[in-house]
Design brief:
With 802 residues, this protein is of the alpha/beta class. It contains 26 helices and 33 strands. The protein binds adenosine-5'-diphosphate and zinc ion (2 copies). One zinc ion binds next to loops.
Length: 802
């Protein structure tokens, strides 16, 4: 067993395989699959993952592994298998799939240190090596004669540990600490000696007379209500000392979270949790859909199910959309499980993320709450995976590997014989269809735990506003309601529903939107050619001068930014204070939380924002929610646009009247009769599901058909079209009669960075070898991809049609 099969960190299709290396004697006992190694590759030394260890190779003249980076595998056996599966499923490179499962830090350069974790006596040669030090550079160990195997044993027993110090970019976090420089009785004497006028200094000194301990500086300033200059004055007098102390980054202070205990479940909650508990009890894999209105107590179900999993000594993964991973949300999990919870959030620094990942890896926590990539948490005894707001499209990664966290979760659920819970008030059509067919187990919660009705949703027809001479973005009703709210000292959430830069053409008189006659999808406006195009089937036409429905000449393209809305809002209601939340105001780390906190502290009357304010927020003083343009998403070139509109309206409505005060929702739209808007205003998911399914069936979209999207880009327009055409033709020959191959069609964004983009879409129901065909066909172009800067990407089950 001295051959390692290694996947090397060279992301090209020609190196997308394992390479065999000889394991040098010193590593033989300790090297296992899942560790990272350094290997010679051509003239270079590169990183690679050991995926298997065998005794023979069909190659001769193998090179040796140069170095081993990990003493405990960073990828478990399950994750190695999962990586393989993800790569196959998404047609990605193996190395890309493996890298996606690890925190960024493990991909950069670092220095290793060996740290002593025990006061017990270590083996003699180890004691000699440490020579009384708490930690040593790893190189010292390598230079010694102690074996890796021996070291590994000591790491397993917890006597030693390895730390990775990242050389660049990430620095350790240091805090300034303050402590008394003298014994308490000496401080007391000094206190008496201080002049009466030095009030601040006296106050600070008395604190240390009473508390003989070190305190973090910022915390101290808050506690004693004093300033840094006061601290400095006492340091100069030799009464206090300051020093730097390193902290292991924990982005959430566990003491900040008051502990909560399980609530007595309602009848509906009990009925929902019972089959989940059975599945946990029997170590059985099942997928559950918990379809519950906002406020029906889904989160409480998650919490209690997790408790049962923990009682069995197992672990839990909870996925939450990035944007709902607010302190409020984290709070609920930390509140129940305290320091047993790790949080994986993209807003954390790379160092913080790494520290959280290590807490999971070292088995210091049993619950992880995180965004999409937390589905790869390196737990080895997984007892449940929960996906909250399972319909959210952010669960699909839009980069290689283009995986959907729901699919990965279900795969891991099968591997671990554990349940997967999907929760949502507005499940994805695919999910609900599976639940209806009994593939997933469905439980429905249609009552809020507080017994309150959902807030009433009023639809305002913006065409009438125009006819009445109101050309602002705010209907008279909405303006009136906002003013009433402000008078009562209550707060307002306003959402501008806008996504991407795609524009559509709409008649402002009658609301008519130009759609493709073949695809039931809004045509996209192309500014340069002044044409309308369909991005599914290449249909195109000139922008009409007059509305084909009502002959008005007010037909034009659409799109407004939050900043502009804020301006007109403050003009309209000058006394209102507004917090604006969009990509611009939340770019800086922590600004998202800060704005929300300000709003929660009632520092503004109105929270104005994009989609990002629709999710997970819970403000008790908010009684009015306004949606400014409910339509704007409806006409994106995306067959899911009705579904997304329905989901978003339902979700944002849930922000109003969550507590004692009753809530109200105003939805402004130019298409009040559209079923997604009408049915959302009635909270009628079932009817919406029926209507939307009928449409999907007619136009052959998911869940009736699967999709695959191939995008080709090249700087030469003709080259891009031709290649796409060739791919489409080859595919057509390969696939069955019932499979539809569409294209070449220009991508919705037809040129990015001077590259022309075309796409080919495949709609299929049963095509078991499709991935193989696609791979084969793409390989035909491998040479051109390498030499001619041609780019071909494949997205299996795309969510992002751009
Ligand atoms: P959802 O996740 O479905 O939106 P939550 O779990 O957030 O619903 O529950 C909404 C509110 O109801 C929360 O404030 C929660 O603490 C409370 N709640 C949940 N379950 C119960 C229960 N069984 N009894 C009383 N209150 C509950
Ligand atoms: Zn019209
Ligand atoms: Zn079309």
């Amino acid at each position: 067993m001295n051959i390692a099969k290694v996947i090397v960190d060279v992301p090209t299709s020609s190196t997308n395989q394992t390479f065999d290396y000889v394991i040098p004697e010193k590593f033989i006992e300790m090297l296992t699959a899942g560790m990272r190694v350094i290997v010679p590759f051509g003239p270079r030394k590169i990183m690679g993952f050991v995926v298997d260890i065998t005794s023979e190779s069909s190659f001769t003249k193998l090179k040796e592994i140069l170095d081993v980076l990990d003493l405990t595998p960073v990828l478990t056996e399950e994750l190695l298998e999962l990586g393989k599966w993800v790569a196959e499923e998404t047609l990605s490179l193996s190395i890309t799939a493996l890298q996606a499962m690890l925190p960024q830090v493990l991909k950069s350069q670092y220095r290793k240190e060996l740290i002593r974790q025990t006061d017990d006596k270590l083996p003699d040669e180890m004691e000699t090596l440490f020579a009384g030090r708490g930690y040593i550079p790893f190189e010292e160990f390598e230079a010694s004669s102690i074996s890796y195997y021996q070291l590994q044993k000591l790491i397993e027993t917890g006597d030693l540990s390895i730390d990775y110090l990242v050389k660049s970019r990430i620095t350790k976090k240091q805090l300034t600490m303050v402590k008394p420089a003298k014994a308490t009785h000496l401080l007391e004497e000094a206190l008496v000696d201080l002049p009466r006028s030095a009030k601040k200094q006296k106050q600070l000194l008395s604190f240390f007379v009473e508390n003989d301990k070190e305190v973090e500086k910022q915390e101290l300033l808050k506690k004693v209500n004093t300033t840094a200059s006061t601290v400095k004055a006492l340091v100069e007098k030799g009464l206090l000392d300051t020093f730097q102390q390193e902290v292991l980054r924990n982005p959430y202070n566990d003491e900040d979270f008051p502990r909560t205990s399980p609530l007595e479940l309602t009848k509906q909650q009990r009925e929902a949790i019972q089959p989940i508990n059975e599945s946990i009890e029997m170590n059985k894999h099942d997928v559950f859909l918990v379809h519950g209105v906002t406020g029906s107590g889904k989160t409480e179900i998650y919490l209690q199910a997790i408790q049962n999993v923990l009682n069995k000594g197992k672990e839990a993964i909870v996925l939450v959309p990035e944007i709902s991973l607010t302190p409020q949300m984290v709070n609920r999990f930390k509140g129940r499980f305290g320091s047993n919870v790790a949080v994986m959030h993209s807003a954390l620094s790379a160092g913080e993320k790494f520290d959280e990942w290590r807490r999971i890896h070292r088995k210091e926590v049993k619950v992880v709450v995180g965004a999409r990539s937390a589905v790869f948490a390196p737990f080895e005894n997984l007892g449940i995976i929960i996906i909250d707001e399972e319909h959210e499209t952010t669960y699909k990664q839009e980069d290689q590997p283009r995986y959907h966290a729901r699919d990965v979760a279900i795969h891991r659920g099968q591997n671990n014989n554990c349940p997967v819970i999907l929760g949502s008030a507005t499940p994805a059509l695919e999910t609900y269809a599976r639940a209806s067919k009994g593939v997933y187990k469905l439980s429905t919660l249609d009552e809020r735990t507080n017994g309150k009705a959902m807030p009433e949703i009023k639809i305002i027809d913006m065409r009438n506003e125009l006819h009445a001479g109101n050309r602002t973005m705010f209907s008279r009703k909405l303006k009136e309601k906002i003013e009433q709210c402000l008078e009562k000292g209550e707060q307002v959430v306003l959402m501008l529903n806008r996504r991407g830069y795609s524009t559509f053409v709409m008649c402002r008189d009658c609301g008519h939107v130009k759609e493709c006659p073949h695809c039931d999808i809004a045509l996209t406006y192309h500014k340069n050619s002044h044409q309308l195009k369909c991005h599914y089937c290449s249909y195109e036409e000139k922008v009409p001068e007059l509305c084909p429905e009502c002959e008005s000449d007010l037909i034009r393209y659409f799109g407004t930014g939050t900043q502009k809305v804020e301006e007109s809002l403050t003009k309209l209601i000058p006394e209102a204070t507004v917090i604006r939340m969009d990509v611009d105001t939340t770019r800086r780390k922590g600004s998202h939380e800060k704005l929300l906190k300000q709003f929660a502290e009632r520092k503004a009357d109105i929270l104005l924002g994009t989609q990002m304010i629709a999710k997970g927020l819970d403000f008790e003083n908010v009684t009015l929610v306004g949606v400014l343009t409910a339509d704007s998403m409806l006409h994106l070139p995306d067959f899911r646009s009705s579904e997304k509109t329905f989901q978003l309206l339902t979700q944002v409505s849930g922000r109003a009247g969550r507590h004692e005060l009753p809530g109200e929702v105003i939805v402004q739209t130019y298409t009040p009769d559209h079923y997604s808007i009408e049915l959302a205003s009635e909270y009628n998911f079932n009817e919406f599901y029926k209507r939307e399914m009928a449409t999907r069936k007619v136009f052959q979209y998911p869940p009736y058909f699967y999709l695959a999207l191939i995008t080709v880009s090249h700087e030469n327009n003709v080259k891009a079209v031709q290649t796409t055409q060739q791919i489409a033709q080859l595919l057509m020959k390969a696939v069955g009669n019932n499979t539809v191959v569409l294209g070449p069609t220009p991508s919705p964004i037809p040129r990015i960075k001077d590259r022309y983009r075309y796409q080919c879409m495949i709609k299929y129901r049963d095509e078991p070898h499709l991935r193989k065909y696609i791979n084969k066909i793409i390989n035909v172009f491998a040479d051109e991809v390498r030499k001619n800067d041609l780019l071909i990407t494949v997205d299996m089950q795309p969510y992002h049609m751009m």
